[in-house]
């Protein structure tokens, strides 16, 4: 802050110097001196002409002409030979001008310059380590709204000068997540992930921000990252919690029950969250039962063969067909790729053909395909699987193991 005020003083001094500079310069043109110089030059020039004319015999009374010339020179001199000096002293102009510059500069800054905000910004930047430590320590008393805003301001300032600070981007992303600022959270976490993609904390934060996005590709990317954390044996309740809530929202109730059950085993009955997880499991089981009872439905468990290589942004398409293998599906649904094995439930709400419901079928087959390009009409290179013919209401199991 001291540097800021020193810079304002320097700028003010420069402005005052620019005002004083013209007043300090002496007047380069003096009317009286100029007149005398011209008269002298004219007198000498005329004397030379008279001498030439006398030598040529053109004039008879040279001395009289010289006397007239001298008289005319005297007549040109004003009676008051003392030049009247300026009545205003340069200092009388300089001092008020300097005072006006100083007063106006600091007055206008005090009015419009937001000095209090600049001071607050400087204080917040200095308090960044303390605020960061409080956020990371996970204290029982969370940061207040003012502290969160201060921390965000300080982090943005630091990241402006240190854009390669992955920890700073991670902190900014967590603050944005807490404030439900999805755009800022994704941008900050993406920067942290770009700088430190091997960090489990960064990967988890990035996945968490992507889960809040409404874009299906972002959500698929989040599931891929979370699945990768599980494969790396990264044990963190937040990973299972994110996967569980995501599965519940996608109506993949068996997967939600599985993840919540793992969380219960991890925390034990002594934890206060144990009962809450039990209620979540009951809710998912109830919804799963409702899906099974809705005027006949099809419960499909899908697995992937070892040789299947699914692109990251692929989608899973599950369709129900007549038992005769008709290519036109009676019902179909599209899901994010997610993890396998997985279970999905299709019912009359997924019917595709007008005038015919899934519950009208007595026998059926189920097909599942991994759509790699987002276009359901193209199948070249996609992996797929097909079940045997089963009666409506029976559970279906199939493996995706073939390629178009």
From TrEMBL:
Family matches, as NCBIfam families: cytochro_ccmI (TIGR03142)
InterPro entries documented for this protein: C-type_cytochrome_biogenesis, Cyt_c_biogenesis_CcmI, Ig_CycH, TPR-like_helical_dom_sf, TPR_CcmH_CycH
Name of the molecule in the record: C-type cytochrome biogenesis protein CcmI
GO cellular component: cell envelope; plasma membrane
Location(s), subcellular: Cell envelope
Record key words, sorted: Cytochrome c-type biogenesis, Membrane, Repeat, TPR repeat, Transmembrane, Transmembrane helix
Cytochrome c-type biogenesis protein H Ig-like domain segment(s): 298-400
Pfam families: Ig_CycH (PF23892), TPR_CcmH_CycH (PF23914)
Domain Cytochrome c-type biogenesis protein H TPR residues, every copy: 117-274
The keyword RNA-binding is assigned to this record: no
Organism this protein belongs to: Vibrio gelatinilyticus
Annotated TM spans: 6-23, 91-109
BP terms from Gene Ontology: cytochrome complex assembly
Tagged with keyword Membrane: yes
């Amino acid at each position: 802050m001291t540097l800021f005020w020193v810079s304002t003083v320097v700028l003010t001094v420069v402005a005052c110097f620019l005002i004083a500079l013209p007043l300090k310069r002496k007047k380069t043109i003096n009317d009286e001196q100029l007149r005398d110089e011209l008269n002298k030059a004219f007198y000498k020039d005329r004397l030379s002409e008279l001498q030439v004319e006398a030598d040529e015999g053109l004039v008879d009374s040279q001395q009289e002409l010289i006397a007239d010339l001298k008289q005319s020179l005297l007549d040109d001199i004003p009676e008051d030979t003392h030049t009247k000096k300026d009545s205003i002293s340069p200092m009388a102009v300089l001092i008020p001008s300097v005072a006006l510059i100083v007063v106006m500069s600091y007055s206008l800054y005090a009015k419009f310059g937001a000095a209090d905000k600049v001071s607050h910004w400087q204080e917040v930047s200095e308090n960044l380590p303390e605020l960061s430590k409080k956020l990371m320590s996970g204290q029982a008393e969370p940061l207040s709204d003012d502290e969160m805003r201060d921390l965000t301001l300080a982090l943005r300032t630091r990241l402006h000068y240190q854009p390669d600070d992955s920890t700073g981007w991670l902190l900014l992303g967590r603050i944005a997540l807490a404030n439900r600022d999805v755009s800022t959270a994704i941008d900050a976490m993406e920067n942290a992930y770009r700088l430190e993609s091997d960090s489990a904390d960064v990967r988890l934060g990035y996945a968490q921000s992507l889960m809040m996005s409404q874009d299906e590709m972002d959500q698929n990317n989040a599931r891929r990252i979370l699945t990768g954390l599980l494969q790396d044996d990264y044990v963190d309740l937040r990973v299972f919690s994110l996967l569980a809530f995501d599965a519940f929202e996608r109506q993949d109730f068996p997967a939600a029950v599985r993840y919540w059950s793992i969380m219960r085993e991890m925390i034990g009955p002594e934890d206060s969250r144990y009962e809450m997880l039990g209620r979540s499991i009951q809710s998912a089981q109830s919804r799963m039962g409702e899906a099974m009872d809705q005027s006949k439905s099809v419960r499909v468990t899908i697995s992937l063969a070892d040789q299947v290589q699914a692109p990251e942004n692929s989608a899973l398409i599950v369709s129900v067909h007549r038992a005769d293998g008709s290519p036109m599906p009676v019902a179909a649904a599209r899901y994010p790729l997610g993890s396998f094995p997985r279970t999905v439930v299709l019912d009359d709400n997924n019917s595709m053909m007008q005038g015919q419901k899934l519950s009208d079928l007595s026998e059926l087959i189920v097909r599942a395909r991994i759509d790699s390009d987002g276009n359901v009409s193209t199948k070249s290179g996609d992996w797929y699987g097909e079940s045997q013919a089963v009666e409506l209401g029976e559970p279906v199991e199939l493996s995706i193991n073939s390629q178009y």
